[in-house]
Amino acid sequence: MPEAPIAPPAGLVETVAPGLRRLVAPNPSAFTFTGTCSYIVGEGEVAILDPGPDDDAHLAALLAAVAGERVAAVIVTHTHRDHSSLSGRIAAALGAPVVGCRPHEPRPGAPQGLDAAHDLTYAPARVLAEGERVVFGDHALTALATPGHAANHLCFAWGDALFSGDHVMGWSTSVVAPPDGSMGDYMASLEKLRERSETIYWPGHGGPVTEPARYVRGLITHRRQRETAILARLEAGPATISEIVEKNYVGLAPKLKGAAALSTLAHLEDLLARGLARRGEGAALEAVYERG
């Protein structure tokens, strides 16, 4: 992680690259950094990517930012509330279609209470599959399926840039929360991005990732180190997730321990699938785990 991650201010429309503006929503938190980044791609004929949370001030700011321009599409990377909840209102106000990821499919046992809970009101006019494009003006965004942080997560390639949503962020690692989040899928999606040639990532929170190839390799290494630490703890004897978190996240702020527990569960589910761990009876977050 960078020592001093870029913290873009909320409520300010900034031109961050030729043909690209960013407006950060006023929803800062331990999970969203300074807020959700909404992007306006193009000039004259544009697309809005990740309109953000259902917030009146953010809606007004986005509408003012594109006044006099034609909005061809409202594009959504994934259906966590802080990214997609405003999509219906802003699309209606602009007469633009909502396109992007598929709607969330609720699953029994999904964690509640996180900032990243899914938006069940999201209703796209068009669901994009791998390789499909959104074309407007002189621009095109190409969808890349990158499940892991969310099962329906998409990134979007734009020339030599990538809109990385919450899959890769420069200020923090992504939370992977089962049952919708999958560590196996997340790692496979990182490997997929590692093989690509984009030179800059524009994430859903925080500033740009300016050395994405190196950074993605670092994320993969970080997750493998977490996996190794979990296996080492299980080698010492059976343990619950809370015990693993206390051992492996020394000094972690109490408000982040829930997220750490979910990421640990995601690692354990991956280890279970690979036969490297076993789980005792009981709910997944309370069960005792041992080495496979």
Write up what this structure looks like.
This protein is of the alpha/beta class and 292 residues long. The chain folds into 2 domains: 14-210, Ribonuclease Z/Hydroxyacylglutathione hydrolase-like (Metallo-beta-lactamase, Chain A, 4-Layer Sandwich), CATH 3.60.15.10; 226-291, Arc Repressor Mutant, subunit A (Orthogonal Bundle). Helices cover 28% and strands 22% of the residues. It has helices spanning 56-65, 81-84, 87-94, 183-194, 212-235, 241-248, 257-273; strands spanning 14-17, 20-24, 37-41, 45-49, 70-76, 98-100, 126-127, 133-136, 139-145, 154-158, 161-165, 200-203, 239-240, 277-279, 288-291.
Distance between the termini: 31 Å
Helix content: 25-40%
Q: Globular, elongated, flat, extended or rod-shaped: what is the shape?
A: elongated
Instruction: Characterize the main sheet.
Output: 7 strands, mixed
Oligomerization = single chain
Q: How many strands in all? A: 15
**Average residue pLDDT:** 94
Q: How does the SSE layout of this entry go?
A:
Elements: E1 14-17, E2 20-24, E3 37-41, E4 45-49, H1 56-65, E5 70-76, H2 81-84, H3 87-94, E6 98-100, E7 126-127, E8 133-136, E9 139-145, E10 154-158, E11 161-165, H4 183-194, E12 200-203, H5 212-235, E13 239-240, H6 241-248, H7 257-273, E14 277-279, E15 288-291
Parallel strand pairs: 4-5, 5-6, 6-7, 11-12
Antiparallel strand pairs: 1-2, 2-3, 3-4, 8-9, 9-10, 10-11, 13-15, 14-15
